[in-house]
Structure formats: C-alpha cells, structure tokens
Amino acid sequence: MKSKSLIISILFVIASFVANAQSHNEQVTVEGSYRPQIKRSERLLKTPQAPDNEFDIPNYKAGVRDFDYGYNMEVETMSAMSYKAEYGVEGKNNFLKAALGTRLSPVFLFRHYSDVSRNMSLGVGVRHYSSWLDMKDYKKSSFMNNNFSVMTVNKFRGGQLRPFIDYKYDMYHLRAYEGENTDGRNIHSINAGAKWLSSGSSYRNLYTEFGGDYRATWIPDGITEHQLNGTAHMAYSDDWIFNESVNKLQTIAADIDVNYDNVYQGQLIIALNPYFTMSGDFYNIHAGVRLDLKTGDDAGVYPDVSGSIFVLDNALEFYAKFGGRSAINTFADIVAENPFVT
C-alpha cells in the first residue's frame, strides 16, 4: 500500500513538472512584414496582432436600422495601466503595389493609415499610372495620371470630423498627325473639404451629417472650373408600425444637396429629398420624392421609390427602383471621360 501511494505521488510530481514546463518559457513568433515591438514585461498590457493589408479609414456611421450600433470615444486602444511612451501609437497599416500592365503601363500605389493619437487617425495615398505605348482607342498617344490624397478622422464626444484634400495631375499627349509638335494637355484638379458625422444612431434620436467641399479643375492657359458642394443628412428611426422586433424599424429621413458650378453661367442646384424607409425579415421599402431647384430653369420633381424582396433564406433578392435627378455635367467629368475634348 505504501509503495502504491509512493508511485501515485511520483506520477503527480512528474505531471506537475510537465504542466509547468508547458505553461512557461513558451515563445511565439509572429511571421510577416509586420513585427510588433513590445517588451516581454508589457505583453499583459497589449496583445500584438498583424493588421490587414488594406487602406480603410474607419467609418463610425451607424446605419438607420442598426439602432443598437454605437461607439464610445473614451475607450482606450490599450490597457489603462501605464504604457511606455517610447513606443508611441502602435496602430499602423501600409500597402504598396507596383505592377506593369499589358500595354507596358506601370502602376504604383501606396497607401498608409495610422492612429496618430487615441482620437485622431491619418490616411495618406499616392497613385501613379502611365503608358509606354499608345492609349487604348487613341493612336499615337500617351498619358500619365498622378494622385495624392490626405485624410484624417478626428473623434470628439459628439461625433467625428473628417477633413480631406485630394490633388490630381494628369498629362495627356495626342500626336494624331505626323510631324505635329505639341506639348500635350496638362489637367490639374484639387478637391478639399470636410464632413461631420454625429455619434450614436437614428433610433429614437435625430442623427445628422453635414459636409462641404471645394473643387477646382483647370488647364494652364485654358478653362478653369470652380465647384462648391454641400450635403446634409437627417434621420429618425423607430418601430411605430409593428412593435414586434427591434429589427423591424421605420425611418423618416431627408437629404439636402447644394451644387454650384461657375463654368455654365453660375449654375446652381438645390435638391431636397425627403423619404421613408421600412425593413423586415424579407423586404426593404424606400419611398420618397426629390425636388430640384435650378437657376434659370423650372423646378424638377422626381420620384424616389425602390424596394426589394428576399427569398430562399435571403440568398436571392428581387430589386426594383424608379427615380431621377438633375445634375450638372461638369468640366471635370467631361475631361475625365475624354481628356482631348476641346
């Protein structure tokens, strides 16, 4: 009996030693292009994870049906315990792409995203695309497109502010005739603006968004276009009709758009679009009207109706839409479609 107890005791000691060996001195290596630099003593404060390779500014807007979706701006991205300042903010995301197209067209794309602080994120993008052979559909031609953009997301207690600036420089050369000497066409475009999105959602609460931007497009010694755009969105949701499920909500909303263009004799369009939406387990209904007020022209009234039905456990959707709107055919849109237009 004593020998049996001794054997059992020895087995317990061996098992404890094996368990202790497995629970300590275990090293984990994260392989990849991103290797977090965190000291062993601080691994309890933050868990390193390799980020996805995509450029995506976080959008904290809550959908009108997802009433229970929200975010708390006071939540920290790391432990409330002390963290060494020498490491700074760890949230980073970089994407780089370089390629060569079938028409010997080099492509370069770089995108960077980082959390500058707990309440501010930064996004930077650079793009280059050009041709070493003739452009498609244009004989004896070449082009080079360049784009640089910067955007930040600034979080506040009541919402977030998203300012941005985007600059484009495109060069096109069309040598349609032998011996023709041309410097080509250089098109510049700059777009700057900001958008405010309130926090929370529209469920039993007035949700608002406001935005505005300025855009200039010009050709040296040629046309210069100035555009001013403004947007506003308001929505309020509740379960007035069914009162059965929180997923069956109805929403009353309105969108306001203001567009000004100086090229076409100072064309101005003010659009008001009130609408009503309701959703269920197998359907989605949108019913509204759009009123466009245009300078030098009659007002336009357009329907804004759409709906969808889901069948086969939401695997198949039948969708229909009927509507219209007034829009300014801007110079920037025209040269984007045909850069050689005169």
TrEMBL record:
Query: Where does the signal peptide begin and end?
Result: 1-21
Q: What is this protein called?
A: Solitary outer membrane autotransporter beta-barrel domain-containing protein
> Superkingdom of this entry's organism?
Bacteria
Keywords for the protein's UniProt record, in alphabetical order:
Signal
**The keyword Signal belongs to this UniProt entry's keyword annotation:** yes
